[in-house]
Amino acid sequence: MRGATVLITGAARGMGELYARRAAREGAAAIALWDVDTARADALAAELASTPATVRGGSAPRVRVFTVDVSDREAIRRGVADTRAELGDPDVLINNAGIVRGALFWEHDPEQDIERTMRINTLGPMWLTREVLPAMIADTSRPKRILNIASAAGTLANPRMSVYASSKWAMIGWAESVRLELAGEGHRHVAVTTFCPSFISTGMFAGARGPLLTPIMTPQRAVRDAWNGMLAGTPMVLRPWTVKLAMAFRGVLPTRAWDVVAGRVFRVYSSMDRFTGRA
Fold it and tell me: Mind listing the UniProt keywords for this protein, alphabetically (predicted)?
């Protein structure tokens, strides 16, 4: 991380803020904070710019705020151009921005819920990665990292989150394919990590209930695990361990049998019954 240029979407709050703080602490030379909440991002930037790194010989990073709506492809193009002009090409990209709408599918608004969720959670990371990846591939002077924040919802179906789950399923499939393409073409200095956590207590999933043996994770724990996986170039990081267990059961059981296990034993299917979300 020392000396790296880091670009983080959804950087003004929650896990995005924690990623930014960690990048500064570990010696990043420059940090681009992308968010639609400019005021909150400005406050974080001012704090990070005056905080020296804890690594030996490190100094406070250059931090810049870019007001970018990642649901807008043209806004992403302008944001990348502005970031490149001020800070250079990113060495680390963290696709963190995301939204969730918890409702029955037929209650979703086609534009504000369905289309907007897919644009922010899936198309935005694709568009942004497509803009910065050629420069990452071309520069072999240091390792490059792409961290995609997906969800355990992208590994298992769940009622009342059909659109959110589909956006994360798509992200996982896309990210894994890009990872294989990079390795297959010899670009092994660019590593892609996909993080699939269960519920995290950021407020985004307020009211949701963790399934059996699946505690609600703290943002600090989630960021630590995702961060360490990214630095190591781990393809997929699934947390907690019950996410892997559920995937294994889903893979070997007939669908109807899994429905019984997920619904009555693990209580996955009722986890969103009391969802309220962030105000």
Answer: Oxidoreductase
